[in-house]
Write a structure and sequence with these properties.
The chain is an alpha/beta fold and 425 residues long. The chain contains 19 helices and 8 strands. It folds into 3 domains: 228 residues, 2-Layer Sandwich (Nucleotidyltransferase, domain 5); 90 residues, Orthogonal Bundle (DNA polymerase, domain 1), CATH 1.10.150; 91 residues, DNA polymerase, domain 1 (Orthogonal Bundle), CATH 1.10.150. Helix 4 links the parallel strand 5 and strand 6. The protein is flat, with a radius of gyration of 25 Å.
Length: 425
């Protein structure tokens, strides 16, 4: 983990150096009423924040993005906040403007639509510092997947596809905590919100034609639930246990250690894998230590953590036996049969074609693992497992395909200008 952090830090420094290079700046797209063409405003006072928020509130719909550095801490350090309307773009400096309450209140105002692109991480400080989730969010990355674009798609590629405009270089991993920011950094940051309203307009019109406006509301609720911003133990355990088959005792210890690791990381504001590297965590789950000294002697184990939190770590290992084990997905015996795997590969290809033929991104609809569980349940005559596929917009689009998998429907594909999939009459 430390090596990975070092790599990201070095790449960030390199990108920052490149942002100082004297190269051609791409011009702002002209002729679109939803694309503001004026130079971005720099806001570094509380009074300035308040004035900008009044403009956003009046507009009733605005764009939102942040630039942050997250590899060196538990909580990402927000270094810049970008907002915009059809008339202006503003760059808010959170290092100088200390009172962001007016902006946080506006993000929680259900009467104003917030347009973002891959906005989950951008809202984390709002939930942590203000205690409330955002409302009325429209995420263009999610919405693009509902009209057939690959998910996840970058903002740059979406701008190119929908507006036929090249915004130039990428500086996501630049040193955003540096001051002053370079011209290229400022332009890059402004462009992250400058084109979102125009993209929102195009996507929304297509969603309306397809009858999927309710779908995007449903999907964007993933950004408005407080639970999505907390520690997800199940996801974390499944990640660390990938390609591993721990015994029950080991699994329980992993759960206990990962819960404690997250708590310590929060308290120390350090990356979890810096507090307790994955290799050390797995080693402890397999062969627990008895003393803090033994922890400190472990290869790769942070000595300061062993000395300060050693007793808590040892207690979490002992207490883990009282936990309820998380269910890890294990390949079913039928899944290992060559003929079944071959059928599964073919059906997964058909499923992807079905989604594409219905103007949906397959990866947004379902993962390969989720699809596999569905297929194996149907093949063995069992009830398909409960999942997101059984409710909401996914069930609407997938019901015909599931009936096809059950032998109750026939589907057909045709290819002219684009792929079309439908139930055979």
């Amino acid at each position: 983990m430390a090596q990975n952090q070092s790599h990201r830090s070095n790449y960030r420094k390199q990108s920052h150096q490149e942002s100082h290079a004297n190269v051609e700046i791409k011009p702002v797209l002209q002729g679109n009423d939803l694309v503001p063409t004026e130079e971005a405003r720099w806001i570094d006072t509380d009074e300035g924040v308040l004035a900008v928020c009044e403009e956003l509130k009046t507009a009733k719909i605005f764009t939102y993005d942040t630039e942050f550095i997250g590899e060196d801490s538990y909580f990402a350090n927000t270094c810049l906040i970008q907002v915009g309307t059809s008339n202006m773009v503003a760059l808010i400096d959170p290092f100088s403007a200390k009172d962001l309450t007016p902006l946080y209140e506006l993000l929680c105002d259900s009467t104003c639509t917030k347009v973002v692109h891959a906005g989950k991480q951008d809202f984390e400080p709002l939930v942590r510092l203000y205690g409330k989730p955002p409302t009325a969010v429209f995420d263009t990355q999610l919405a693009a997947g509902l009209i057939g674009f690959p998910w996840p798609i970058s903002l740059t590629k979406l701008i190119e596809a929908l507006l036929h405009h090249d915004v130039g270089g990428h500086f996501t991993l630049s040193q955003w905590d540096a001051r002053p920011l370079t011209t290229r950094q400022l332009i890059y940051a402004a462009d992250d919100v400058r084109y979102l309203l125009a993209i929102h307009d195009i996507i929304q019109k297509r969603l309306d034609v397809l009858g999927r406006l309710d779908w995007v509301v449903e999907e964007c609720q993933s950004l408005t639930s407080p639970t999505v911003f907390g520690f997800d133990l199940q996801t974390a355990v499944k990640r660390i246990c990938k390609n591993r088959n721990p015994r029950k005792k080991e699994l329980l210890r992993i759960q206990g250690l990962m819960t404690l690791r997250d708590s310590i990381a929060r308290e120390q504001n350090e990356p979890p894998r810096t507090v307790l590297p994955d290799d050390c965590l797995i080693a402890l789950a397999r062969k627990p230590a008895d003393t803090s000294d033994q922890l400190a002697a472990m290869k790769g184990f942070p000595k300061k953590i062993a000395m300060k939190f050693g007793e808590k770590i040892l207690s979490s290992i002992l207490d883990a036996q009282e936990l309820t084990p998380i269910r890890l997905r294990k390949p079913q015996s039928i899944e290992k049969e060559a003929n079944t795997r071959q059928e599964l590969d073919g059906l997964w290809s058909l499923f992807c074609a079905w989604c594409v033929g219905n103007e949906l991104s397959p990866s947004l609809v379902a993962s390969r693992a989720t699809f596999t569980d569905w297929y194996l349940a149907i093949r063995t005559g069992n009830e398909p497992p409960t999942s997101t596929l059984t409710s909401g917009w996914r069930s609407v689009i997938l019901t015909p395909f599931i009936q096809f998998m059950q032998g109750k429907e026939q589907i057909e594909f045709s290819l002219c200008d684009s792929l079309l999939a439908r139930v055979k009459e």
